Amino acid sequence: MSIALYAFTCGHLTIPFKSFLEGEEGLLTVPVPAYLLVHPKGSVLFDTGLNPHAVDPNGSYFDSIHPSNQIRVSTPELLNARFEQAGLDIAGVTHVINSHLHYDHAGGNSLAPDVPILIQKRELDHARAVGTAGGYVSADFETGQSFTMLNGEHDLFGDGSIVCMPTFGHTPGHQSLKVTTTTGTYILAGDACYLRRTLDDMHLPRFRYNDEQMLASLRALKALQQRGARIMYGHDPEFWETVPQAPVRLA
Ligand SMILES: [Zn+2]
User: Fold this and answer.
1) Measured in angstroms, how far is the CA atom of residue 208 from the centroid of ligand 1?
2) 100 CA to middle of ligand 1, Å?
3) Can you give the CATH number for the domain in which 125 is found?
4) In terms of residue numbers, what domain contains 231?
5) 174: CA distance to ligand 1 center in Å?
6) Following DSSP, what letter does each residue of 128-185 receive, concatenated?
7) pTM of the predicted structure, to 2 decimals
8) Is residue 250 part of a domain?
9) How far is the CA of 120 from the centre of ligand 1 (A)?
10) Residue 247 within any structural domain of the chain
11) Cα of 211 from ligand 1 centre, angstroms
């Protein structure tokens, strides 16, 4: 299937390294990725970066984020600006898929208004129960957009090219995206796998909802990797430097 895959960097986070890899010291600055997939049947976002309100460091948006999370994002780094810079039209987006509803993955949902959000039902249920706490900011995802709630694996266009793949454990309803293009299979891991080392060493981050589920998800990612899939790690700064950014196609 001919699918164009584009990557965007929508700001950075500086967070204690141990949050990403248990046992590490100091801080780690990581990218906030988002992706666009252009399929003959639709244009699909996978995650949307940070909320436009996060641009103002003195704004009330930050009241809802734990102070150990330093967000750095400027207006030109928001997803809509990234589209413009790449000569792409965010108004042409037909679907938004969220890996999960943490603020650095769903913050920019409102930048594609009137587009339905595809999310695992158990993730939405959990986020709504939590409200604003523990990485969730309800204003990010309670935007008035409609939700298409998924229960497990979901083949978006029925041709196997874009498949939502449950990877629970980071949160109750986290999902990754399996994308099959003419150049190979790409797994947009999201926070199921922050760093290359997470998968190489099967080394968990400090932040996790369920250890057993997270390890099962990592094993599933590893099996796909062994079959030749390219894993797009969720927040790996060194890996991310090797990823072509829009308007250059990743695939
Ligand atoms: Zn997360």
Assistant:
1) 9
2) 7
3) 3.60.15.10
4) 4-240
5) 8
6) HHH-SBTTB-HHHH-SS--EEEE-S-EETTSSSSEEEEE-TTSSTT-EEEEEEETTEE
7) 0.96
8) no
9) 14
10) no
11) 14
